[in-house]
Amino acid sequence: SLSTGLDLPGRFLFATLTLMTLIAILVFIEEAVYIYRKIPSSKRSIIIWINAAAPVISTTSCIGMWVPRSTMFTDFTAGIFFSIVIHKFLMMMINECGGQKLLLRRFENGRFTISTGPCCCCCLCLPRVPITRQTLFWLKLGTFQFAVLRPMLIFLSIVLWTNGNYVLYNLSPKGPAIWINCFIGALTLFALWAVGIVFRKVRILLKSKNIIPKFALYQFIVILNHLQTTIINIFATQKIIPCAPPLSSTARGSYIAQQLLIMEMFLITVISRVVYRRKYHDLEPPECACEEAVDKEQAP
């Protein structure tokens, strides 16, 4: 068992990481109470969802660290939750602009630059798309499809896994794991692309609301939860991470990924509390800005 297999330094490490997870949960609960009391109801739930991403990933990683057999379920739980958070982050940027109607009014003659990462950062020849209700609908659909389809694919993976057909580290073309993971990867790229397009347009307008640090924290969660974990799992599968009895290479790689995530998500939880805790003034409506400009011209 896990408790008998750990030496004294190992138990100290596990206890420290568990304590960090508990602190991250307490910090999030305190932040959620503050948001519930101080933030308007129209923005409250979205901001709580986004702030919950790091503590949830830290908690699932901690459970997977203590109960190795639950790794499949904990990873899938974190994946489902974060797929919803990506959609919530896009909606938060639209809400911070005053909602869809005010965003369309602010950028009435503007255009979206679609040659951005992670899909089309090298395709500089792509045309700029007018900012209309239809283009906003397609961008929201780009993240919404991820929030709906990824949980469905993860549910399919669990069903196949319980039947013995889905092996997480079996990347042969005959197995379903590689095809499901490739499809989820494509859905992820499209969702991140939609968020990147909107962020590139509103980052200057929302600079006073610290949208750049918020986007940076969101990007760190994406990179650490997806890219870092995938790289470690590939190293473990290829035996680059050596086995350490009684742990195999894949089990040891899973432990390393979970322990790194707990520490990283703890730091992101603390930094998120600082970034989201500040009070930001709402942006002025476009009409008010126009009227003030006219009044200044008529004053002389």
Automatic annotation (TrEMBL):
Organism whose genome encodes this protein: Origma solitaria
Keyword entries, A-Z: Membrane, Transmembrane, Transmembrane helix
Stored PANTHER family: ORGANIC SOLUTE TRANSPORTER-RELATED
Protein name from the UniProt record: OSTA protein
Membrane-spanning intervals of the chain: 12-34, 46-67, 73-94, 137-158, 178-199, 211-236, 256-276
Keyword Transferase in annotation: no
Localization per Swiss-Prot or TrEMBL: Membrane
InterPro entries registered for this protein in UniProt: Ostalpha/TMEM184C (IPR005178)
Single GO cellular component term: membrane
Membrane topology type: Multi-pass membrane protein
Major subcellular location class: membrane
